[in-house]
Design a protein that fits this description.
Radius of gyration: 21 Å
Subcellular location: Cell membrane
Distance between the termini: 39 Å
Largest sheet: none
Number of strands: 0
Transmembrane segments: 29-50, 91-115, 165-186, 193-214, 234-258, 279-299, 305-327, 334-355, 367-391
CATH class: Mainly Alpha
CATH topology: Na+/H+ antiporter like fold
Membrane topology: Multi-pass membrane protein
Strand content: under 5%
Protein name: Cation:proton antiporter
Number of domains: 1
Keywords: Antiport, Cell membrane, Ion transport, Membrane, Transmembrane, Transmembrane helix, Transport
Helix content: over 70%
Number of helices: 18
Order of helices and strands: HHHHHHHHHHHHHHHHHH
């Protein structure tokens, strides 16, 4: 364990000193950390040895996602967002269920011998998106605010919305579901979403009000403006777990509520949460790369590759296109939003839970999910800079001819996480 931690720390330091020139060339941190993990996880080096069944590894990944979700959500103008939910609502209520069905059908068609329940588990694991892998897309102001907002809010909430379906799928695969599927899904959704909202809204409101009142009176030392939100993110997650709700929903709604009540949305309160989440995410990607050596390669088949490619393209893009029907959205925007649905930390967490539960066909499921994430890390990372440039160029010409275009509609947008590195 000590050797693994030393190795991860060295990788983080080495990336840090060259992060700006790498970012300017479109090379993301996830790409670097995953590749480094592959290198140090080879049988020759074996410097990072992760135990898949470890609950600590699962919690570690979850916390990385929780801190990033909370920081992102804190920057959202909640009052303004309520008036501009048309696209995020369509992506979550129409696009997400269709993606689940499409992934389920694709799994049955492509993967030989997989059971119905196995395909259901797989579909729930590959549906959540991770905006952090396409950070440039949701932070570059050249991309229309409405597009950035829709992708940002979708990725923030779909992790938690997938949790009830994932838990039901796991129970079905283990034949321990005592009620009908519909009743189980409804019950799990009520518990995961309901308690997640209670934990997130309650914690976020309390912490936000306390920060605002104390800050207005000059009672808070500078560093505690950063520590308090970090603690609120952790608290919302832990309370949600204790109540039986989704920690992801709690983190995202907690961040939005915290920002609303504290009236603080900028880097003075979000930097630490984001940086801690980024460090944990970096370590997670190193571990993921190390796991890929021993878990993915021995079990990869052409079927797993085909499923991974389809899940990143048609399985995601067609539902997005259907969800945006009737909105006046141009094909270029539909394709752009459909492509940028990267799979990341949430899928890793779901895969670790499924493995720990001992679901049937777990080797096939794990290899397929890991192949999907691996392709996503590099394909979405490498394509973000050129596609953002191409799309923003098209958008500038399009809105000049049609100022009232659907993409140009004003919307509430979260503050930038970081300004993109200069080209």
């Amino acid at each position: 364990m000590i050797v693994a931690l030393i190795t991860i720390a060295v990788i983080l330091i080495l990336y840090g000193v060259v992060s700006r020139p790498l970012g300017a060339r479109g090379i993301t941190s996830a790409m670097v950390f995953t590749a480094a993990g592959v290198a140090v996880g080879t049988s020759a080096l074996n410097l990072v040895n992760i135990h898949l069944e470890s609950i600590a590894a699962q919690r570690f990944c979850e916390l990385a996602l929780v801190f990033l979700l909370f920081a992102d959500a804190t920057r959202i103008d909640l009052a303004g967002l309520r008036r501009h939910l048309a696209w995020p609502r369509r992506l979550l209520l129409i696009g997400l269920p269709l993606t689940l069905f499409a992934a389920f059908g694709t799994g049955l068609l492509v993967l030989p011998g997989i059971a119905l329940t196995g395909a259901f588990v797989l579909s729930t694991m590959v549906c959540p998106t991770d905006a952090a892998l396409g950070q440039r897309v949701v932070s570059d102001q050249a991309v229309p605010a409405r597009v950035r907002q829709a992708l940002d809010v979708e990725s923030g909430l779909n992790d938690g919305l997938c949790v009830p379906f994932f838990l039901v799928a796991v129970d079905l695969s283990l034949a321990r579901l005592s009620t009908g599927v519909t009743a189980a899904v409804i019950r799990n959704m009520a518990e995961q979403i309901g308690w997640g909202l209670v934990a997130g809204v309650g914690t976020g409101a309390l912490a936000g009000l306390l920060l605002r009142a104390a800050d207005d009176r000059g009672w808070i030392e500078g560093q505690w403006r950063q520590i308090l939100p970090l603690s609120a993110a952790l608290l919302s997650y832990l309370v949600a777990l204790r109540l039986g709700g989704s920690g992801f929903i709690a983190a995202f709604t907690g961040g939005m509520t915290f920002g609303y009540f504290s009236r603080r949305h900028d880097l003075r309160v979000t930097t630490l949460s984001e940086d801690v989440g980024g460090v944990l995410a970096g370590a997670t990607w190193v571990g993921f790369g190390a796991l890929a050596v021993g878990v993915l390669l021995p079990h990869v088949t052409w079927q797993t590759v085909v499923f991974a490619v389809l899940s990143l393209t048609l399985v995601r893009m067609v539902p997005v296109a259907i969800a945006l029907l009737g909105t006046g959205t141009r094909l270029e925007t539909v394709a752009f939003m459909g492509w940028f649905g990267p799979r990341g930390l949430a899928s890793i967490v779901f895969a670790l839970i499924a493995l720990d539960e001992g679901v049937p066909d777990r080797q096939t499921l794990l290899a397929t999910v890991m192949m999907t994430i691996l392709l996503s890390v590099f394909l979405h990372g490498l394509s973000s800079a050129p596609l953002v440039a191409a799309y923003s160029h098209w958008y500038a010409g399009h809105v000049a001819k049609q100022p009232s275009a659907a993409e140009a509609k004003s919307t509430a947008m979260s503050r930038l996480r970081r300004h993109p590195a200069p080209e």
